[in-house]
């Protein structure tokens, strides 16, 4: 095969001489490009034919290379053969070698041609790439020139939408083309000789000025269509920040132009109404305008507008708070409360028990309580007394009027609650914004002449930080810390002290209570709800601890001091509770009657105080449960703050336990002074003349008379008289169980001194059961039978049959014995 004949021609077709593209004029570019494309097509066809034939040649070349080792081996073998025979084989090998060399030469020629053709193709590709780049650059320059011309025409014809689109297309031209020499020669004209970048900058600045002016005119005339039109044009020319700034001025103007609520500054609702109107107008703007802003400017861009609005809010809030402090004379009130707090205060000294129930003091209580309740509990109905109260020295109030403080605190927390609602609204609108959800329009990122607007996270502060670091937040925080906290503390301390001093004991109700718990916890409830309404977590955390301290020191401490006064009266009067039957040790009937009267008065006074403590503990638990289970905290605080707000009430949770600890100690003291001495001889009086050494006749007589049960019932009724109907259920239960427990021990000791026949043991068992049943019927709660377990085990041992072995019964009966082995043997010895 003739390789030269099989190889196609690779010479390029005739055509115009090729020149460098940079030397061509714009009119010659397209014809030259067409020629190059034709040449490229011809070369590609020739190369394809050459490469298809080269595949066969490469295959043959590969096979020959595989045969070379075998040929060399054959040549070596031929050299060792005989001369004649070797000559014949040598001729064959020579012809094979000639064919091999011919093939190799032809392969070399093909490779040389392929390399030459490939180089020419690569050169054509490079030229084609450069031509395309030149065409693209030409198109970009022509687009720039056309856009600038349309932009000038649109500005002249006031076609602002077309002008904005043309400006956008011009801004999309890459920087290197806009500032290149070709654009500098082609784009400028005799009428507009400026460089393209300068022309675009001037035209864009002119558009910005026009848009701002037209937007201002539309905003001033309240033309919603024109306002929306120019508001949408700013992002088209990459002026989001300028547009948001003008839009912010517009919405601030809307806020400033709102209708101010009428009224006088002396009205308690004046400042609250102004703040409410301010926050509502801004909330309405954010609610209505946020979707529009984020649609055209990108997600999260409303933060910039809110920041501008917040500046206006800070200005208005500062003016309102300063006016409020001046109008309400807050500084004077703070100074007065400080002087009243730091003034020397003598410890609360309750009047002696005799004066608590004296007629002169009782006549002054209704009006005093009416004054307190009318001041702090207007919703409660109190019937005032017609008599004029005689002021008690301890009732004279010092310091500012609590009613004035209460009004001021309500007004301040009303304002802070409005701010808290506004703050929660903005938190919900401005947090958790995904900046990439709606990408804001921007200019060409490759053009430093018109840099894109910063992303929302950089162009404006985070929405939550914007609110937390605002001037309004700081002003309200300072008002709560410097005004609310000291005034609220003074108000609670003063009213708590007054509620204790002017408390009225209602002995006609069951149980006997004074007005102090209801008044105090009504005030405490209003204080806590007012504290929550302030919507300040830091204030809540500080004030709950302070409120708990005031209740513990002033209220609980005041009740304890009153009870100590009762104890002092008991000791000074010599009342020990040992008098019974109307006589005392040696003073005669008159002295005994006086002692009983004093005991009844002191007992009634103490019962009221003990009931107050029990009711106070119950009020504390119910109030905290009501607050923590209500929607007050979630409605006043952010979701992130609710858990901390609930935890802030921990100091108040401990108050109920402190009330009950004090109550337990007080009941023990009452019991030891007034009840325990009477219980010492109680069982002995029940068993006077009673024996359990009975035969059948005496047993029948004892069964008929039932002396022990009757005496016990009569004595028990006398013992609990004055307690059963006056104590609260919890206090009476504690008192009842203490009395039963104190009765059991002397009863056991008395039994250890007696002898029992078989019928006597049976009679004792009946007496024991009847008394236990009697005590059970006296209450609706259980627990008294447990106190009789040892007595019941004594009765069981005494009633063992004669054929039962006491020792075996103790070991094998399965009874969980409360009696020790020595006590058991002692009881067994009582049987006769």
UniProtKB/TrEMBL annotation:
One GO BP annotation of this record: protein transport
Keyword Protein transport included in the entry's annotation: yes
Top-level taxon: Eukaryota
Gene Ontology terms: cellular component: Golgi membrane
Compartments where located: Golgi apparatus membrane
InterPro entries: COG4, COG4_C, COG4_M, COG4_N
The keyword Membrane is assigned to this record: yes
Start and end residues of each stretch annotated as Disordered: 1-21, 76-97, 339-363, 379-403, 436-468
Keywords: Golgi apparatus, Membrane, Protein transport, Transport
Major localization class: Golgi
Compositional bias per record (Pro residues), positions renumbered to this chain: 437-455
Family statement: Belongs to the COG4 family.
Name by which UniProt lists this protein: Conserved oligomeric Golgi complex subunit 4
Annotated source species: Phaffia rhodozyma
Lineage of producing organism: Eukaryota, Fungi, Dikarya, Basidiomycota, Agaricomycotina
């Amino acid at each position: 095969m003739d390789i030269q004949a099989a190889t196609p021609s690779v010479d390029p077709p005739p055509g115009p001489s090729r020149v460098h593209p940079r030397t061509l004029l714009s009119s010659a570019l397209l014809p030259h490009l067409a020629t190059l494309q034709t040449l490229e097509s011809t070369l590609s066809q020739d190369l394809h034919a050459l490469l298809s034939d080269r595949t066969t040649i490469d295959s043959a070349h590969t096979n020959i290379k595989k045969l070379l080792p075998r040929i060399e081996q054959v040549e070596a073998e031929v050299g060792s053969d005989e001369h004649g025979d070797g000559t014949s084989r040598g001729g064959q090998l020579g012809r094979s070698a000639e064919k091999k060399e011919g093939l190799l030469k032809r392969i070399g020629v093909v490779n040389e041609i392929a390399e030459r053709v490939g180089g020419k193709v690569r050169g054509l590709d490079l030229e084609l790439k450069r031509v395309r780049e030149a065409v693209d650059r030409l198109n970009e320059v022509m687009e720039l020139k056309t856009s600038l011309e349309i932009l000038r025409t649109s500005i002249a014809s006031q076609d602002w939408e077309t002008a904005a689109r043309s400006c956008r297309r011009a801004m999309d031209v890459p920087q290197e083309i806009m500032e290149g020499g070709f654009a500098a020669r082609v784009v400028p004209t005799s009428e507009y000789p400026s460089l393209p970048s300068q022309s675009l900058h001037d035209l864009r600045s002119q558009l910005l000025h026009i848009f701002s002016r037209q937007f201002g005119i539309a905003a001033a005339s309240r033309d919603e269509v024109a306002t929306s039109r120019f508001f949408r044009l700013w992002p088209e020319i990459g002026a989001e920040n300028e547009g948001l700034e003008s839009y912010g001025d517009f919405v601030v103007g809307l806020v400033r132009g709102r209708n101010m609520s009428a009224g006088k500054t002396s009205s308690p609702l004046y400042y609250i109404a102004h703040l409410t109107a301010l926050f509502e107008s801004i909330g309405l703007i954010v609610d209505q305008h946020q979707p529009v802003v984020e649609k055209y400017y990108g997600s999260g861009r409303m933060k910039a507008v809110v920041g501008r609005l917040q500046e206006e809010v800070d200005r208005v809030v500062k003016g309102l708070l300063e006016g409020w402090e001046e109008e309400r004379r807050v500084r004077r009130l703070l100074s007065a409360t400080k002087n009243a707090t730091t003034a020397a205060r003598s410890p609360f000294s309750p009047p002696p028990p005799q004066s608590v129930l004296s007629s002169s003091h009782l006549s002054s209580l209704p009006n005093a309580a009416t004054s307190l309740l009318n001041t702090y509990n207007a919703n409660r109905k109190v019937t005032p007394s017609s008599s004029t109260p005689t002021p008690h020295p301890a009732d004279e109030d010092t310091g500012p009027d609590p009613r004035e403080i209460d009004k001021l605190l309500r007004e301040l927390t009303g304002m802070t609650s409005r701010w808290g609602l506004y703050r929660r609204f903005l938190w919900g609108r401005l947090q958790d914004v995904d900046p990439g959800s709606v990408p804001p329009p921007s200019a060409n990122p490759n053009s430093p002449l018109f840099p894109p607007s910063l992303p929302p996270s950089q162009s404006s502060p985070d929405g939550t930080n914007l609110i937390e670091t605002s001037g309004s937040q700081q002003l309200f925080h300072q008002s709560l810390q410097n005004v609310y906290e000291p005034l609220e503390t003074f108000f609670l301390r003063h009213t708590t002290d007054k509620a204790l001093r002017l408390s009225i004991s209602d002995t006609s109700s069951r149980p006997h209570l004074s007005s102090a718990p209801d008044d105090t916890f009504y005030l405490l409830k209003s204080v806590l709800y007012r504290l929550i309404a302030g919507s300040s977590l830091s204030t809540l955390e500080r004030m709950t601890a302070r409120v708990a301290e005031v209740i513990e020191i002033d209220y609980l401490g005041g009740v304890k001091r009153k009870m100590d006064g009762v104890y002092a009266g008991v000791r000074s009067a010599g009342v020990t509770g040992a008098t019974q039957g109307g006589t005392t040790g040696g003073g005669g009937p008159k002295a005994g009657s006086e002692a009983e009267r004093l005991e009844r008065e002191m007992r009634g006074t103490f019962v009221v105080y003990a009931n107050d403590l029990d009711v106070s503990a119950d009020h504390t638990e119910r109030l905290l449960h009501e607050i923590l289970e209500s929607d007050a905290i979630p409605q006043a605080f952010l979701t992130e703050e609710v858990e901390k707000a609930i935890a802030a009430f921990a100091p108040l949770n401990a108050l109920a336990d402190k009330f009950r600890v004090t109550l337990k100690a007080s009941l023990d003291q009452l019991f030891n002074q007034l009840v325990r001495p009477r219980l010492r001889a109680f069982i002995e009086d029940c068993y006077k003349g009673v024996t359990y050494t009975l035969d059948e006749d005496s047993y029948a007589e004892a069964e008929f008379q039932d002396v022990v049960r009757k005496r016990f019932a009569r004595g028990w009724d006398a013992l609990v008289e004055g307690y059963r109907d006056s104590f609260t259920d919890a206090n009476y239960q504690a008192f009842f169980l203490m009395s039963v427990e104190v009765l059991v021990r002397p009863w056991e000791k008395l039994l250890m001194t007696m002898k029992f026949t078989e019928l006597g043991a049976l009679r004792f068992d009946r007496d024991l059961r009847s008394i236990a049943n009697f005590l059970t019927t006296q209450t609706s709660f259980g627990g008294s039978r447990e106190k009789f377990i040892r007595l019941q085990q004594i009765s069981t041992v005494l009633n063992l049959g004669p054929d039962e072995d006491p020792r075996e019964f103790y070991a094998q009966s399965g009874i969980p014995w409360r009696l020790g082995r020595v006590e058991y043997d002692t009881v067994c010895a009582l049987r006769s």
